[in-house]
């Protein structure tokens, strides 16, 4: 994403709040989401600025949690220049040396969707994205914008994982990863591999950060993010190290 992208001051943008709804991460909690006006396209410049304030992209929408009396959702990012892979992560990298990587535009592909649908059915049948549908997939992960990409992972010619990510001015933003659920592939830790590959891509492109979305200390499904060190969280308008 070019540093010469047009910018609009955040104060000139319009935002809307959703009505309270059941929290997807914390049982018994209600959540409210702050959205950029849907009439505003997530163009470069606007997207770059809002991502620094903790906004994420889902399809054409930029959003962040805005829950009264709760700030459990914290935006986190990896300063890739300081990243140090753990022993386990180095093993995962070596174990997957035979994986072929391709980066393409975030367009719809029936093979991608089939892998996604199977992943949702097997891993997230209790979540908001179940049951999967082609329309839901298109709305969530495809976008005809120059910054939106998909990273494909192939093993012996077979698609085994896809990681959706955006190329921002100041880093890459990991949107979502899905992969083949198979006992034979479990030791490959494809979800972790996707993050390691995005870190490597940041380093290759001299981008300072990899944004990993939100982290909730009480949420078991998000604990994997703590395995990447160092990691920073957004505290108000300032990023600071997450010390565990």
UniProtKB/TrEMBL annotation:
Pfam annotation, one family: ATE_N
User: Where in or outside the cell?
Assistant: Cytoplasm
**Main localization of the protein described in the UniProt heading:** cytoplasm
- Enzyme class per UniProt: transferase
- Give the enzyme's EC designation: 2.3.2.29
Q: Which SUPFAM superfamilies does the annotation name?
A: Acyl-CoA N-acyltransferases (Nat) (SSF55729)
Where the record annotates domain N-end rule aminoacyl transferase C-terminal, the positions are: 112-235
GO MF: transferase activity
According to the entry, every stretch annotated as the N-end aminoacyl transferase N-terminal domain falls at 21-91
Which keywords does UniProt give here?
Answer: Acyltransferase, Cytoplasm, Transferase
Taxonomic superkingdom: Bacteria
Listed under catalytic activity are: N-terminal L-glutamyl-[protein] + L-leucyl-tRNA(Leu) = N-terminal L-leucyl-L-glutamyl-[protein] + tRNA(Leu) + H(+); N-terminal L-aspartyl-[protein] + L-leucyl-tRNA(Leu) = N-terminal L-leucyl-L-aspartyl-[protein] + tRNA(Leu) + H(+)
Q: Which PANTHER family match?
A: ARGININE-TRNA-PROTEIN TRANSFERASE 1 (PTHR21367), ARGINYL-TRNA--PROTEIN TRANSFERASE 1 (PTHR21367:SF1)
Which NCBIfam families does the entry link to?
PRK01305.1-1, PRK01305.1-3, PRK01305.2-3
- Describe the family membership recorded for this protein in Swiss-Prot or TrEMBL: Belongs to the R-transferase family. Bpt subfamily.
User: What role is this protein assigned?
Assistant: Functions in the N-end rule pathway of protein degradation where it conjugates Leu from its aminoacyl-tRNA to the N-termini of proteins containing an N-terminal aspartate or glutamate.
Checking HAMAP family in the record gives: Bpt
Q: What is this protein called?
A: Aspartate/glutamate leucyltransferase
User: Could you tell me which species this protein originates from?
Assistant: Vreelandella lutescens
Name of the gene: ate
């Amino acid at each position: 994403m070019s540093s010469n992208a047009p910018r609009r001051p955040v104060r000139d943008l319009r935002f809307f709040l959703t009505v309270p709804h059941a929290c997807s991460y914390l049982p018994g909690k209600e959540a409210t989401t702050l959205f950029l006006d849907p009439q505003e396209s997530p163009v470069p410049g606007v997207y770059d600025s809002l991502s620094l304030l903790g906004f994420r992209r889902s399809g054409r929408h930029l959003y962040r949690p805005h829950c009264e009396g709760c700030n459990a959702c914290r935006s986190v990012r990896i300063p890739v220049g300081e990243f140090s892979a753990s022993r386990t992560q180095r093993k995962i990298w070596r174990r997957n040396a035979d994986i072929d990587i391709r980066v393409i535009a975030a367009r719809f592909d029936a093979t991608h969707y089939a892998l996604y649908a199977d992943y949702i059915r097997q891993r997230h049948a209790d979540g908001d994205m179940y049951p999967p549908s082609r329309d839901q997939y298109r709305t969530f992960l495809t976008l005809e914008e120059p910054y939106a990409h998909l990273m494909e992972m192939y093993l012996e010619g077979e698609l085994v994982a896809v990681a959706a990510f955006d190329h921002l001015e100041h880093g890459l933003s990991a949107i979502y990863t899905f992969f083949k659920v198979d006992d034979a592939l479990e030791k490959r830790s494809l979800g972790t591999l996707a993050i390691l590959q995005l870190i490597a891509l940041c380093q290759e492109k001299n981008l300072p950060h990899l944004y990993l979305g939100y982290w909730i200390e009480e949420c078991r499904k998000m604990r994997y993010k703590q395995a990447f060190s160092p990691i920073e969280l957004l505290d108000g308008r300032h990023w600071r190290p997450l010390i565990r």
